From TrEMBL:
GO terms under biological process: D-amino acid catabolic process
Protein name stated in the entry: D-aminoacyl-tRNA deacylase
GO cellular component: cytoplasm
Listed PANTHER family: D-AMINOACYL-TRNA DEACYLASE 1, D-TYROSYL-TRNA TYR DEACYLASE
Cited Gene3D superfamilies: D-tyrosyl-tRNA(Tyr) deacylase
Motif (Gly-cisPro motif, important for rejection of L-amino acids): 137-138
Catalytic activity: glycyl-tRNA(Ala) + H2O = tRNA(Ala) + glycine + H(+); a D-aminoacyl-tRNA + H2O = a tRNA + a D-alpha-amino acid + H(+)
Homology family: Belongs to the DTD family.
HAMAP family: Deacylase_Dtd
GO molecular function: D-tyrosyl-tRNA(Tyr) deacylase activity; Gly-tRNA(Ala) deacylase activity; Ser(Gly)-tRNA(Ala) hydrolase activity; tRNA binding
Function per UniProt: An aminoacyl-tRNA editing enzyme that deacylates mischarged D-aminoacyl-tRNAs. Also deacylates mischarged glycyl-tRNA(Ala), protecting cells against glycine mischarging by AlaRS. Acts via tRNA-based rather than protein-based catalysis; rejects L-amino acids rather than detecting D-amino acids in the active site. By recycling D-aminoacyl-tRNA to D-amino acids and free tRNA molecules, this enzyme counteracts the toxicity associated with the formation of D-aminoacyl-tRNA entities in vivo and helps enforce protein L-homochirality.
């Protein structure tokens, strides 16, 4: 599983002119689910996202987590994160999970995050989404889980 985190002042996802999710200060999280990913990973992923220190503390150091600031988390599925881009001029997707498997894990991750944190919003799996954000920093991290 690959997870791209962007620290944001605000972010939203729109599908067919309907806002499906929006947050103020927090993290926009794009998730790419790969073939070997499984439900046993989800608690670890959720805890790392909620506790990853990407926000400024009182001294201006990047030492506060999403939980510490009580920020929002906007989860967006993005299968292109699972692409193999090591060679050639076209990405390969043989390492990506099937759409059915990816949707199950995405929904389970979303449920896990909602159980652990109050401010969780989401895009719509496999939809053509328009994502708007104001990146804070910019601060962007790629986390990989196996």
């Amino acid at each position: 599983m690959k997870v791209l985190i962007q620290r944001v002042c605000r972010a939203s996802v729109t599908v067919d002119e309907e806002v499906t999710g929006e947050i103020d200060q927090g993290m926009l999280v794009f998730v790419g689910i790969e073939r070997d990913d499984n439900p046993a990973m989800l608690d670890k992923v959720a805890e790392r996202l909620l506790n990853y220190r990407v926000f400024a503390d009182e001294e201006g150091r990047m030492n506060a987590s999403l939980r510490d600031i009580n920020g929002g988390l906007l989860l967006v599925s993005q299968f292109t994160l699972a692409a193999d881009t090591r060679k050639g001029l076209r990405p390969g997707f043989s390492s990506a999970a099937t759409p059915a498997d990816a949707q199950l894990l995405y929904n389970a991750l979303l449920d896990t995050l909602k159980e652990k944190h109050d401010k969780v919003a989401a895009g719509r799996f496999a939809a053509d989404m328009q994502v708007s954000l104001v990146n804070d920093g910019p601060v962007t991290f790629l986390l990989e889980f196996q």
